[in-house]
C-alpha cells in the first residue's frame, strides 16, 4: 500500500482533524481534467469533511449527491450553525472520487441522518480546535473567545483575529475526542429555519447546472444501437452507410455493443437509424406478454425468507383474506440519463449524475480492467432520479466509448425512448394478507405473504449490474440477487398484533429491475393500510380510531391525530370519499400519516386533496422537509392512479409519455403538509416516507366514495 498521510493516521489508531489554510491547492477541482488530484486517499476521518480556507470561508465535503432533495443547503446549514457563520460563507462540495468521503450511495433517506450529522460533529470539532489555537497563539483565555463569520473574537476587548493569522499556513492535525460538544439545540439560529436554495434560482434562469448541459471544446457525441430485446444477439453487422455520413467520426463495435461517434448529435442520430436498418438481431428469449402477472410471477419464485414469526397464525372461520398487486413502474426521469467521458494517458474521467460515485468507479474498474486509482468520477446534478435509473448505465457506456476513442471528450445523452425502455424498473409485487379479530374487535392474528423481485441491482462494484456489460463482453445475461431485503421493507405492520407472521418469496422476473423510491415499502404499506381499513370495517370501527387503538408509539399516534385534525373541517361532495393511512418508514425512520379525498367524475377517478403530517425528528430545513413530503405524495398518487410498465414478447412498449402516462399539472391534487418538530430527537430521513401511505389513503378514499375496493394497481384500470 502506498504510504499517505491518511494511511499513516489510520495505522496509528487516532482520528485527526486536518485544516488547510491554502485554498485551492491539493483540493482544487475544475472541469479541466488535468486539475484532478492524483492521489487523495480519503478515509472516514474528520479531515475528510471540513476545510477552513485562508479567507475564513469553509468548504464542506460530502459523499452525497444533490438529487433535488436539497441536501446541499441542509449540510450548509448544519456546518454554518456549528461554525457560527453566515451560510453564504459555506461551500458544499458534492460527491467526487478521490476528493470527498466515500459515503456509498445517496439512497435510503440517509443523507441527513448520516452525512449531515457527521458534518455537524466535524465542524463542531474544527470550531473547538480553532479557538484553542487562537488562545495559545495570543495568550488569551479560551473561554473569552468565540467564532463569528470566519474570525475569532475576544469578548473582552472585541479584538478580531483572522484564521489565516492564527494558523499562519500551518496544517493542523489533532486527535479528535470521542465525544464532540456540539451546539445546544436552544441556541440554533440557522438549523430549523427555512433557507432559500440558490441552486433553484440558477435552474429557473436556465443556467448550466446539469451534466446534460456540459460542453467541452472538440467534444464528440455518442449514440448506442440498442438490440431488439434484452436477450438479443447480433447476427449481421453492416456499418458502411452509417460511417459514410458527413461528421460521423467512427462506428465502434465490440461483440454486441455497437456505437456511433459524431461531431454533432443530429448526425449521430442519423447514423443510428442507418445502423438499425443494416444490422440484424436474433432474439433468443421471449417475454411473457399478455400473462396475468398476479398469477404468473409467483410461479417464478426461487428464494424464500421468513421475515418475522410470533405466536400462532392458525386462523378460525371468521378471518378475512385479501390479495393486492402492484405492477412494474418506472422512474420516469424527466431528463433522460447522460454522462461525459474522457480517457487520456491511462486515466479515465467520468462526469455523471450517478447516486454513488465510488461504487460506480469500482464497477467501471471491473468492466474496463482499469485500476480504480486510474478512474476519476465526478458527480454532477442530473435532471430526474428517484432511484437507480439509467445514470450508471450511461456512465458505463460513455466509459467504453472514451477508452475506444481516447484523448477526446465524449458525451452520451440517452433519448426518451432509451430511458423508458432500458432503465431498471421498480419490481411488480403481490401481497396476500389474512387477518382475524378477537372478541373485542382488536386484531388478534395477522399473516402476510409477499412475492417480489429484488429491489436493488445498483452497480456496487459489479460489472454484471451495468447494462452494457453483456453486450460489450459478448457474454450471457447474469442476474445477481441484489438487495432482497428491499422487497420486504415495511412488510411488518407497526401495530400491536399478538400473533404475527410475515413471509417473503423472491422471483426472477422478466424485466430488468432495481431501486425505485422507497423500494418495497410502497407496495407493502399500500397493502397493509388497505387491509387495516378492511379489518376496521369488519370490526365496525372508524378507521383512524381503529389504527390508534393498535398503536403504542405516541409519535405515531400524534401524526394520525394531526392529519385527522387537518381534514376535519372538510365537507365531502357527492361521489367523494376520504381515506386515511399511516406508516413509519422502515419502522425506524420518519412517521407519516395522510388523508386523501377522491371523486368519481363521469366514470373517471380523481384525487382532489391530500393532507400529510410528518415527524422526522429534528428539522434542519422545514421547507426542504415539506418539499420532500409533498413531492413524495404527488409521485405516489401518480404511481397509484395511472403508472404501469407494459411489454410485448420482445421488449418494453412503454417508451414515451403517451404509452407511460404520469400526472400532468391538471391531475395534481391540492396538497397540504404539516411538520411536527422534535428538536431534541435525532433527525430522520424523510424522502421516502410518503409513498406507501399516500397510495393506501387514495384507495381507501375510493372505497368510501364508491364502495369499490381497489386491490390491483394502477387505479385507473378499475374505472
From TrEMBL:
Q: Which InterPro entries match?
A: Ald_Oxase/Xan_DH_a/b, Ald_Oxase/Xan_DH_a/b_sf, AldOxase/xan_DH_MoCoBD1, AldOxase/xan_DH_MoCoBD2, AldOxase/xan_DH_Mopterin-bd_sf, N-heterocyclic_Hydroxylase, OxRdtase_Mopterin-bd_su_IorB, TAT_signal
Question: What residue stretches are annotated with the Aldehyde oxidase/xanthine dehydrogenase a/b hammerhead domain?
Answer: 205-285
Q: Which UniProt keywords apply?
A: Membrane, Transmembrane, Transmembrane helix
| SUPFAM superfamilies referenced in this protein's UniProt entry, alphabetically | CO dehydrogenase molybdoprotein N-domain-like, Molybdenum cofactor-binding domain
MF term (GO), any: oxidoreductase activity
Highest taxon above the source species: Bacteria
Q: Name one Pfam family in it.
A: MoCoBD_1
Q: Where are the transmembrane segments?
A: 12-29
Q: List the protein's name.
A: Xanthine dehydrogenase family protein molybdopterin-binding subunit
Source organism (scientific name):
Antarcticibacterium flavum
Amino acid at each position: 500500500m502506498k504510504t499517505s498521510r491518511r494511511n499513516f493516521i489510520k495505522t496509528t489508531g487516532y482520528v485527526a482533524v486536518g485544516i488547510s489554510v491554502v485554498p485551492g491547492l491539493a483540493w482544487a477541482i475544475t472541469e479541466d481534467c488535468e486539475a484532478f488530484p492524483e492521489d487523495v486517499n480519503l478515509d472516514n476521518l474528520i479531515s475528510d469533511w471540513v476545510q477552513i480556507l485562508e479567507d475564513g470561508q469553509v468548504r464542506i465535503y460530502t459523499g452525497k449527491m444533490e438529487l433535488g432533495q436539497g441536501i446541499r443547503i441542509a449540510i450548509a446549514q448544519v456546518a454554518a450553525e456549528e461554525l457560527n457563520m453566515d451560510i453564504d460563507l459555506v461551500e458544499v462540495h458534492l460527491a467526487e472520487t478521490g476528493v470527498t468521503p466515500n459515503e456509498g450511495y445517496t439512497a435510503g433517506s440517509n443523507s441527513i441522518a448520516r452525512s449531515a450529522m457527521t458534518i455537524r460533529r466535524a465542524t463542531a470539532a474544527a470550531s473547538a480546535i480553532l479557538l484553542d489555537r487562537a488562545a495559545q497563539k495570543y495568550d488569551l483565555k479560551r473561554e473569552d473567545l468565540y467564532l463569528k463569520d470566519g474570525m475569532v473574537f475576544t469578548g473582552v476587548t472585541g479584538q478580531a483575529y483572522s484564521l489565516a493569522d492564527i494558523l499562519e499556513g500551518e496544517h493542523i492535525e489533532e486527535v479528535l475526542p470521542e465525544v464532540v460538544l456540539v451546539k445546544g439545540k436552544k441556541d440554533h439560529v440557522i438549523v430549523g429555519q427555512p433557507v432559500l436554495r440558490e441552486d433553484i434560482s440558477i435552474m429557473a434562469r436556465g443556467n448550466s447546472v446539469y451534466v446534460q448541459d456540459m460542453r467541452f471544446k472538440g467534444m464528440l457525441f455518442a449514440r448506442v444501437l440498442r438490440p431488439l430485446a434484452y436477450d438479443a444477439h447480433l447476427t449481421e453487422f453492416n456499418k458502411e452507410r452509417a460511417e459514410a455520413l458527413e461528421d460521423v467520426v467512427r462506428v465502434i463495435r465490440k461483440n454486441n455493443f455497437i456505437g456511433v461517434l459524431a461531431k454533432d448529435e443530429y448526425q449521430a442520430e442519423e447514423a443510428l437509424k442507418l445502423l438499425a436498418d443494416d444490422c440484424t438481431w436474433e432474439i433468443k428469449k421471449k417475454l411473457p406478454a399478455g400473462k396475468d402477472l398476479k398469477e404468473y410471477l409467483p410461479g417464478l419464485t426461487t428464494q424464500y425468507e421468513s421475515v418475522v414469526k410470533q405466536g400462532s397464525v392458525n386462523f378460525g372461520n371468521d378471518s378475512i383474506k385479501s390479495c393486492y398487486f402492484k405492477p412494474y413502474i418506472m422512474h420516469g426521469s424527466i431528463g433522460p440519463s447522460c454522462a461525459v467521458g474522457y480517457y487520456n494517458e491511462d486515466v479515465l474521467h467520468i462526469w455523471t449524475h450517478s447516486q454513488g460515485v465510488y461504487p460506480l468507479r469500482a464497477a467501471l474498474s471491473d468492466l474496463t480492467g482499469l485500476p480504480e486509482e486510474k478512474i476519476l468520477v465526478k458527480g454532477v446534478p442530473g435532471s430526474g432520479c428517484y432511484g437507480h435509473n439509467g445514470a450508471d448505465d450511461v456512465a458505463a457506456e460513455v466509459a467504453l466509448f472514451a477508452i475506444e476513442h481516447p484523448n477526446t471528450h465524449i458525451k452520451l445523452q440517452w433519448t426518451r425512448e432509451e430511458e423508458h425502455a432500458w432503465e431498471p424498473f421498480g419490481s411488480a409485487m403481490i401481497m396476500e394478507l389474512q387477518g382475524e379479530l378477537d372478541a373485542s374487535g382488536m386484531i388478534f392474528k395477522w399473516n402476510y405473504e409477499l412475492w417480489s423481485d429484488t429491489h436493488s441491482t445498483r452497480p456496487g462494484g459489479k460489472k454484471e449490474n451495468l447494462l452494457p456489460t453483456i453486450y460489450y463482453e459478448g457474454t450471457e445475461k447474469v442476474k445477481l440477487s441484489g438487495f432482497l431485503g428491499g422487497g420486504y421493507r415495511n412488510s411488518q405492520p407497526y401495530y400491536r398484533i399478538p400473533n404475527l407472521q410475515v413471509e417473503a418469496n423472491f422471483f426472477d422476473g422478466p424485466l430488468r429491475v432495481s431501486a425505485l423510491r422507497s423500494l418495497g415499502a410502497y407496495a407493502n404499506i399500500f397493502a397493509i393500510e388497505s387491509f387495516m381499513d378492511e379489518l376496521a370495517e369488519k370490526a365496525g370501527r372508524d378507521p383512524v380510531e381503529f389504527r390508534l387503538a393498535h398503536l403504542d408509539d405516541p409519535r405515531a399516534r400524534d401524526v394520525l391525530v394531526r392529519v385527522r385534525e387537518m381534514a376535519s373541517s372538510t365537507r365531502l361532495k357527492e361521489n367523494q370519499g376520504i381515506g386515511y393511512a399511516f406508516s413509519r418508514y422502515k419502522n425506524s425512520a420518519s412517521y407519516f400519516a395522510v388523508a386523501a379525498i377522491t371523486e368519481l367524475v363521469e366514470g373517471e377517478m380523481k384525487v382532489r386533496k391530500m393532507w400529510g403530517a410528518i415527524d422526522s425528528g429534528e428539522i434542519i430545513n422545514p421547507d426542504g422537509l415539506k418539499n420532500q413530503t409533498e413531492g413524495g405524495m404527488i409521485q405516489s398518487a401518480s404511481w397509484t392512479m395511472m403508472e404501469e410498465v407494459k411489454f410485448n414478447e420482445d421488449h418494453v412498449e412503454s417508451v414515451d409519455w403517451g404509452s407511460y402516462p404520469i400526472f400532468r399539472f391538471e391531475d395534481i391534487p391540492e396538497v397540504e403538509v404539516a411538520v411536527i418538530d422534535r428538536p431534541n430527537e435525532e433527525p430522520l430521513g424523510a424522502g421516502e416516507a410518503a409513498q406507501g401511505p399516500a397510495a393506501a389513503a387514495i384507495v381507501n378514499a375510493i372505497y368510501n366514495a364508491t364502495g369499490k375496493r381497489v386491490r390491483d394497481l394502477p387505479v385507473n384500470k378499475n374505472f
